[in-house]
């Protein structure tokens, strides 16, 4: 990463140096690939994807900073059919909001997939911080006002009742679940308008959706334009390749994030790699990183509902193992920073230079490992969020929140098996700094 001689706080400078040293070195405790391991300080209660657990499945987090009292900041996270969860920085549950019920018995129920935040959304009654959620079940966005004056129930649903499906024409199409999936928010500096970028499940389509506050105090939205990412690719050997999938399915996008400084959207096409394009969807996307499996042929087996891979022609990347999932941005005050990407297939995280002028080059990686027998790490991570800002005495150097797709210890289901459990891990960036001290101070 290029270093600029611009003013920054001592804390930000120290964190940048330590993080870079940690990610590019192989200290004691590194894995077989030389990646360092960091450990969580706490975890949220387990969510269980069964009837007893309300069909709850942890997916994607967002971090809301309480500017007036940073120690009372919140983590807002999706739980799919279980709706939305709000946690304090102690990882304890603050609020639980259900997903909408289906319109009719045979219709798809609400299913919250991804969440992101808009700070200071302009409304007729003043500015408000809001959480925007993609409801995969109803193919809609849901918008929640964040009110810190209500510590027991800080989120209120202010979605306009007239909000229409993002991609579907009617309920039959909604039930087919080619619906709103991944999500990232964006505020256009030139106009002050607020948007959500929404991906379509089992398709390559992205939609730019403008958030439109109403005089009633609700928030509606309108679709501005769409863009389709490629579904097939020309390989260097002249062959055409598409990721193996169930017939009729295309390589979808879920993890997305917008760099507010540049207006660049980073979109993770799960079996392909990471795309960079303008957040207004008006330019040609650039594939800045490929997954290792890029170009590998496969045959779908209807019996097992899995793909049998063929020989690897060697055209894939070296850092990400499919699926590429949660993307989040580590921002520094002077514009430096990192794009974090979850390499779900090998439970690691890769970091890329935030600067487009540096071609988003790879900077390093890490794992989130177990802190103890009862506080495990993150496996098969779906979503992640990082905030490089002080959050009171608990997280003075900021926080990284990651989804754990396989929460342990396992809990028996009463029928000889175990319950499917997920949750979120909170990682203290101060602990990262302490762990990296010997590396940061060593001669280079």
Protein model, in words:
- It is built from three helices and 30 strands.
- With 444 residues, the protein is mainly beta.
- It has a five-stranded mixed beta sheet with strand order 1-27-26-25-24, covered by helices on one side. Strands 2, 3, 28, 29 and 30 form a five-stranded antiparallel beta sheet that branches. The protein has a four-stranded antiparallel beta sheet with strand order 4-5-6-7, with no helix packed on it.
- Helix 1 packs across helix 3.
- It starts with 9 loop residues before the first helix and ends with a helix.
- Mean pLDDT is 90; it is low at 1-28 and 435-444.
Keywords:
disordered N terminus; disordered C terminus; mainly beta; five-stranded antiparallel sheet
Q: Could you outline the blueprint of secondary structure elements for this entry?
A:
Blueprint: H1 10-24, E1 37-38, E2 42-43, E3 47-48, E4 61-64, E5 74-78, E6 84-88, E7 93-97, E8 112-123, E9 126-135, E10 140-146, E11 155-157, H2 171-175, E12 180-187, E13 194-200, E14 205-213, E15 219-228, E16 233-234, E17 240-241, E18 253-259, E19 264-269, E20 273-278, E21 286-290, E22 298-301, E23 306-309, E24 324-331, E25 337-343, E26 348-353, E27 362-368, E28 384-387, E29 399-404, E30 421-428, H3 429-441
Parallel strand pairs: 1-27
Antiparallel strand pairs: 2-30, 3-30, 4-5, 5-6, 6-7, 8-9, 9-10, 10-11, 12-13, 13-14, 14-15, 16-17, 18-19, 19-20, 20-21, 22-23, 24-25, 25-26, 26-27, 28-29, 29-30
Helix pairs in contact: 1-3
